[in-house]
Design brief:
Layout lengths: L4 H13 L6 H18 L6 H23 L5 H22 L4 H24 L11 H7 L6 H24 L9 H20 L3
Helix pairs in contact: 2-3, 2-4, 3-4, 4-5, 4-7, 5-8, 7-8
Length: 205
């Protein structure tokens, strides 16, 4: 997004008047956290409140970053808030929907490792994977075009989309989330988990 000089000047004025914690992108981040906590607090993860809570948190993920760039309000705090929320959401979704099968256990193990690595990486380095200047063939493949590519699509499918579909299907048909799957979903999940495992290792290389 290209900002006009007036827009940039106005956003700079807002920055000077408001503390970091009250910047609009960070407020969006707080709403994401609240929506996610509402979902996690539900006894039934397939309930309407849980589904809408986690979905709202995921949808708002597409607004905080663009808002930060447009308003010239990018910050380390906002970036880490965004990605800690992303990975907590990923872990919860996979944990709630992993089937008691070889694919389910593999997906859950990969998710646990990936999110633990993400938390450790951000805590130790103070920034997220894609903000590193170095890279390798795996990180470049997944992070290309801001994650709009096939390897990234499989990564997102395994960590977010497939679990979300399972929760929705389970709620509609009164099934346990771990039972709400198909052969196609399992195949996408397994392939995505492989990319996720490779990405988890590659970010340290």
């Amino acid at each position: 997004v290209t900002m006009s000089p007036n827009t940039s000047m106005n956003s700079d004025n807002v920055q000077r008047r408001l503390p970091l914690f009250l910047w609009l992108p960070n407020i969006i981040g707080y709403i994401r956290v609240i929506a996610f906590v509402v979902a996690v607090a539900e006894e039934d993860p397939t309930s309407r409140r849980a589904l809408w809570g986690v979905t709202l948190s995921l949808v708002l993920d597409y607004f905080d970053g663009p808002a930060a760039r447009y308003l010239n309000m990018c910050s380390q705090f906002g970036d880490l808030l965004d990605h800690y929320t992303d990975h907590a959401t990923m872990m919860w979704l996979v944990y709630m929907t992993a089937a008691p099968s070889a694919i389910g256990r593999f997906s859950l193990a990969v998710s646990a490792a990936h999110n633990a690595v993400a938390f450790a990486y951000m805590t130790l380095r103070g920034y997220y994977f894609k903000h590193t200047e170095k890279g390798n063939v795996i990180t470049r493949a997944i992070e290309a075009n801001n994650y709009w590519n096939l390897p990234a699509a499989l990564y997102v499918s395994s960590t977010i989309l497939v679990p979300l579909v399972k929760l929705s299907f389970a709620g509609a048909h009164r099934l346990a989330p771990q039972q709400a799957s198909t052969g196609l979903l399992d195949a996408v999940d397994a392939l995505g988990a492989l990319f996720t495992a490779a990405y988890t290792i590659a970010v340290w290389l």
